[in-house]
Amino acid sequence: MIRIDFNRLRFLVIDDNAHMRRILRTLLHGFGAREVHEAEDGAAGLEAFTHYVPDVVIVDWAMPIFDGLELTQMIRQPGANANPYVAIIMLTGHSEKMRVTSARDAGVTEFLAKPISAKGLYQRIVNVIANPRPFIKTKTYFGPDRRRNVNPNYVGPERRRGGKADVIKQSPLLEKVRPSS
Amino acid sequence: MAPSKHSAAVTTYGDHEVIVPENKLRKAVSNKPLQPGEVDDPIARAEKALSDLSGEFASWMDAECERLDKARQLVSVAGFTSTNKEELFHAAHDIKGEAATFGFPAMASVANSLCRLIEHTPDSNRIPITLVDQHVAAMRAIYREYDRSDAVALANQLTKRLREVTDEFLMHENRGRPDVLEQIKGPSIVPE
Which CATH number describes the domain made up of B57-185? Predict the structure, then answer.
């Protein structure tokens, strides 16, 4: 089992709900993290991201000013900030397939559906640290590789032209969204 | 705090680049072996920390119910303005996400039903206020009566009926929008 020194990581939690921020802080401290910063909306979150340069961002989807999806798109701007590659874990009560796909296309690294559990959060953090995916930059996308495995039954066109795609095998995001028991 | 530069290996293909950033987080992977008899269970530690906090959860849910009721009152008085609609949705959405964590899992489905009603009605002004009121009253009642031995069974009955009425309304309001109907009828990818 991989062990993580949480006290060597800097976290930023962005959620407008003070109760949920307290829950996340409690869990992260429980894992052993010391440095946990908080922001209560998307704008404050972006400012805190620039100021603290966190290793892992945990962001809620539904927030005032701009939401977690918009914040992710702002962070995933190559050259625009100190770390466009930062690990972003999106925490949300939204559970529809369309929502997960939108989050993936905005460039989130992992998706965690509420209700939150210590195990679910821990697994997402371990995954972003131990199994980071390469980034893909196209005209319309910049973010972690959205191809998590090779589907031998895929019959559509190869949309990446000019070379063989690099694929890191991982569970599909839709599977990962289901809370672990 | 000074920003740290990230180096990355970039491979360019015809219409895309594959970028492998330097993994600065690897510093946090511990190679230190555990001593004989030493136990390191971060998940158990976090669960214990959450359990220590759980004495506050009932009052937190009480505050969330108050917030929901305030949002409902604003809608009753001033209708579904953009701000009122967002606040009501947000309050219900937060309860949906927090209910299980706070120890009131039976509230989540009613909150979800209210979220669906607000999100999938194309013209908010057609949302029946009575149906909104019934959802809010149901959530408050479930919260208030949660200690009863039959609370979960009653909550399930209430939820089932509210969901039926809501879905019937949504199907009617979206009868000309097959893409939305598919979303409404489609199962959630998260078990309820």
Answer: 1.20.120
pLDDT at B192: 42
Name the CATH superfamily, with its identifier, for domain A6-148+163-176: Response regulator (3.40.50.2300)
**Alpha-carbon Rg for chain B in angstroms:** 23
Residues pairing with A18 in the sheet: none
- Find residues 46-85 of chain A whose CB sits inside 8 Å of chain B: 50-53, 55-56, 62, 81-83, 85
A1 touches chain B (CB under 8 A): no
Residue of B nearest to A21 (CA): B98
pLDDT of residue B77: 95
**Residue B180, pLDDT above cutoff 90:** no
At residue A152, the pLDDT reads 67
Contact present, B132 and B117 (Cβ < 8 Å): yes
**Which tokens go with A50?**
């620039």
Chain B environment of A116 (Cβ under 8 Å): 97, 101
E-strand ranges in chain A read: 3-4, 10-14, 35-39, 56-60, 87-92, 110-113, 135-137, 142-144
Domain chopping of chain A, boundaries = 6-148+163-176
Say if residue B166's pLDDT is above 80.
Answer: yes
Q: Which residue of A has its CA nearest to B190?
A: A178
Inter-chain residue contact B15 with A32, CB threshold 8 Å:
no
For A74-132, write each residue's pLDDT tens digit. Answer: 999 887 788 999 999 999 887 777 788 888 889 999 999 999 999 999 999 999 998 88
How near does any CA of chain B get to the CA of A23, in Å? 7
Instruction: Give the nearest chain A residue to B100 (CA atoms).
Output: A115
How many interchain CB pairs under 8 A, A with B?
Answer: 176
Which among A50, A96, A139 has the least Cβ separation from residue B188?
A96
For residues A127 and A123, what is the distance between their CA atoms, to the nearest angstrom? Answer: 6
